[in-house]
């Protein structure tokens, strides 16, 4: 279900952010982020070259549950660690 939602929204969200013209670049969808030996996937990733920051979009179709918030926090922290280790 999330896959269908992702496919339906990805083009529109990408177009919207890129039309802002404020330095947004589309990095990709289903971007793999690895922590230890475990791989996680972020639904959509953008980068703003002016702000030098990433924008992660995680799509959910149901009610926002604590597990989803935990997953988003894990993805943010994992990406942060990855960027520090690779800069």
What does this structure look like?
The protein has one domain. The protein is 44% helix and 32% strand. The chain has two helices and three strands; from the N terminus they run H-E-E-E-H. The termini are far apart.
Percent in strands: 25-35%
Shape: globular
Mean pLDDT: 82
**Structural classification:** alpha+beta
Record field, number of beta strands: 3
Summarize the SSE layout with pairings:
Blueprint: H1 2-19, E1 24-35, E2 38-48, E3 53-57, H2 66-85
Antiparallel strand pairs: 1-2, 2-3
What structural keywords apply?
about 90 residues, three-stranded antiparallel β-sheet, globular, about 45% helix, 2 helices, alpha+beta
In short:
This protein is an alpha+beta fold and 87 residues long. The protein is built from 2 helices and 3 strands; from the N terminus they run αβββα.
């Amino acid at each position: 279900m999330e896959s269908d939602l992702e496919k339906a929204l990805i083009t529109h969200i990408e177009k919207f952010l890129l039309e802002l013209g404020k330095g947004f670049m589309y990095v990709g969808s289903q971007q793999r982020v690895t922590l230890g030996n475990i791989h996680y996937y972020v639904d959509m990733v953008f980068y703003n070259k002016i702000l030098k920051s990433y924008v992660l979009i995680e799509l959910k179709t149901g009610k926002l549950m604590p597990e989803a918030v935990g997953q988003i926090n894990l993805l943010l922290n994992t990406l942060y660690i990855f960027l520090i280790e690779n800069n």
